[in-house]
């Protein structure tokens, strides 16, 4: 009798983002919100990594010696800054087209990044291990959150860190992140997010703890329309990030 292997891949989601792949590096294109969001999440990652590993943040390449996985890397918007900070970077995405875009842009930028068209489960099964696993704006697009978080968490070395950024499943998020961003402001194509697939912080934290990680911090990220910028906040009702470590 044939059995169906569980997978975290949602084929419709992969296809949706693959169709937009050529837009990844256009700061005024379909991924404009990520370009705006990037400075805030990069600053947070750098601050917490340097504090955790006792690194001087003013060094030219403070992440030298660290191996980082950016899972669901898309066109490489986080991979390239990590590489510039000195890290050895693996960027993984289920979309072949996204990976090709990322490879081309990294080559044009003179950066060496190990891009792979693969899944979290395949990497975990291969025994891959990383000092830092970046999991940014991906968990709300997978088919099986618990399986996905389990696979990602397996790849965090003892003493290593993981960062997860996603959108809360609240009415406020429905109004702002879906209706407002997709239908009113048209920051994102309609259908980019489905309300039922959004993940509440307690659900995410439970999955991380079940996978053997310890929650260090949860922080909100809010948009200031007057400054047209994103900032850290205590408000986790819409966008939020969770930092966890493997003891």
From TrEMBL:
Gene3D superfamilies according to UniProt: Vaccinia Virus protein VP39 (3.40.50.150)
Enzyme Commission identifier(s): 2.1.1.222, 2.1.1.64
Catalyzed reactions per annotation: a 3-(all-trans-polyprenyl)benzene-1,2-diol + S-adenosyl-L-methionine = a 2-methoxy-6-(all-trans-polyprenyl)phenol + S-adenosyl-L-homocysteine + H(+); a 3-demethylubiquinol + S-adenosyl-L-methionine = a ubiquinol + S-adenosyl-L-homocysteine + H(+)
Top-level EC class as recorded in UniProt: transferase
Database matches in InterPro entries: SAM-dependent_MTases_sf, UbiG_MeTrfase
Alphabetical keyword list: Methyltransferase, S-adenosyl-L-methionine, Transferase, Ubiquinone biosynthesis
Protein name listed in UniProt: Ubiquinone biosynthesis O-methyltransferase
Purpose: O-methyltransferase that catalyzes the 2 O-methylation steps in the ubiquinone biosynthetic pathway.
Upper taxonomic lineage: Bacteria, Pseudomonadati, Pseudomonadota, Alphaproteobacteria, Hyphomicrobiales
GO-annotated biological processes: methylation
Species this chain originates from: Phyllobacterium zundukense
Record-level Gene Ontology MF annotations: 2-polyprenyl-6-hydroxyphenol methylase activity; 3-demethylubiquinol 3-O-methyltransferase activity; polyprenyldihydroxybenzoate methyltransferase activity
UniProt: S-adenosyl-L-methionine binding residues: 41, 72, 93, 136
Pfam families: Methyltransf_23
Family: Belongs to the methyltransferase superfamily. UbiG/COQ3 family.
Pathway this chain belongs to: Cofactor biosynthesis; ubiquinone biosynthesis
């Amino acid at each position: 009798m044939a059995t169906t292997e569980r997978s975290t891949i949602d084929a419709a989601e992969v296809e949706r983002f693959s169709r937009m792949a050529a837009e990844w590096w256009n700061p005024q294109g379909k991924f404009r919100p990520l370009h705006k969001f990037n400075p805030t999440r990069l600053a947070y990652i750098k601050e917490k990594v340097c504090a955790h590993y006792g690194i001087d943040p003013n060094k030219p390449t403070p992440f030298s010696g660290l191996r980082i996985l950016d899972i669901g890397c898309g066109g490489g918007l986080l991979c390239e800054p990590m590489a510039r900070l000195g890290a050895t970077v693996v960027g993984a995405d289920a979309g072949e087209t996204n990976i090709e875009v990322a490879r081309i842009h990294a080559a044009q930028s003179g950066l060496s990044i190990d891009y792979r068209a693969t899944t979290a489960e395949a990497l975990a099964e291969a025994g891959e291990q990383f000092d830092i696993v970046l999991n940014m704006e991906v968990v709300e697009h997978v088919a099986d959150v618990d399986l996905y978080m389990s696979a990602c968490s397996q790849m965090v070395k003892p003493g290593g860190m993981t960062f997860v950024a996603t959108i809360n499943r609240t009415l406020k998020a429905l109004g702002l992140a879906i209706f407002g961003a997709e239908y009113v402001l048209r920051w994102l194509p309609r259908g980019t997010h489905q309300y039922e697939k959004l993940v509440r912080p307690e659900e995410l934290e439970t999955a991380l703890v079940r996978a053997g990680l310890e929650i260090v911090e949860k922080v909100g990220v809010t948009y200031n329309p007057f400054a047209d910028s994103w900032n850290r906040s205590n408000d986790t009702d819409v966008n939020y990030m969770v930092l966890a470590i493997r003891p």
